[in-house]
Amino acid sequence: MGKALFDRQLVAGHMVQHLYKHMLGWPVTFSDLEHVDEEYYNSLKQLKYIEDVSMMCLDFTTMEDTMGAKTTVELVKGGEDIEVDNSNLPEYLEACLKYRMMGRVKPQMNELLMGFFDVIPEPLLTIFDFQELELLMCGLPVIDMDDWKEHTEYSGEYDREMENHEVCRWFWEVVEDFDQEMKARLLQFVTGTSGVPARGFGVLQGNDGNVRKFTIHSVDKQMCMYPRSHTCFNRIDLPLYDSKDELSEKLNLAVTMVATGFDIE
């Protein structure tokens, strides 16, 4: 990859989003985990709503299944002797996130980064965010707007009128006015990658490998001021805005802010 970037050759394969963050030394977040392992993400998320977590009889370990052989891995030193309770739940969740996203592949990641930085010095990447790095390595996608709109699904209040709903019409008008880079960033925001399948949006896949079409879902503006994404479903939750200008402002901010590593909510 480093040689390809050095020679200005595009890499056809898109990596998962958090790998670009690793390359830049950016922290990973739970939204990254949702894209990689939705089931595990949901199981951890549920722990935050349990009144007494100690009743779950958890400790600071996790189970690894390698070719059918199960082994216990400590998330922190002495983890088998540390019971998870409400007071240390945040530390437990953080330890689970770090292990699932980094710890279990640390040797492979170190080798990848060593090889990459042998060709491209690490300081040269500091001017990019992780979305820009993907676009730099893989190039801007060729986006067919007619194909995108044709293979988009609608849910919630948008289900009946679909693209004819006033808010959906505003959305597509705003996206049509985006330049190619901003369209690619919107794709990254909603699907986790700027890549478009060779056969078009009709075969867009979720992180489980199944076809999950680009979906626009309605949400109450009082519950959610900004568009939010669910990359595992290729879904954007689009609030019921009162004007096209408001939609444009909030969508631009949501798509732009995700590249900084901060959550506008």
Automatic annotation (TrEMBL):
The active site is at residue 232. The keyword Acetylation does not apply. Residues 1-265 form the HECT domain. One of its GO terms (cellular component) is cytoplasm. The keyword Methyltransferase does not apply. Pathway: Protein modification; protein ubiquitination. It comes from the Eukaryota. It catalyses: S-ubiquitinyl-[E2 ubiquitin-conjugating enzyme]-L-cysteine + [acceptor protein]-L-lysine = [E2 ubiquitin-conjugating enzyme]-L-cysteine + N(6)-ubiquitinyl-[acceptor protein]-L-lysine. Its EC number is 2.3.2.26. One of its GO terms (molecular function) is ubiquitin protein ligase activity. GO terms for biological process: protein ubiquitination; ubiquitin-dependent protein catabolic process. It is an enzyme of class 2 (transferase). Keywords: Transferase, Ubl conjugation pathway. Pfam families: HECT. PANTHER family: E3 UBIQUITIN-PROTEIN LIGASE NEDD-4, HECT DOMAIN UBIQUITIN-PROTEIN LIGASE. This is HECT-type E3 ubiquitin transferase. It comes from Ditylum brightwellii.
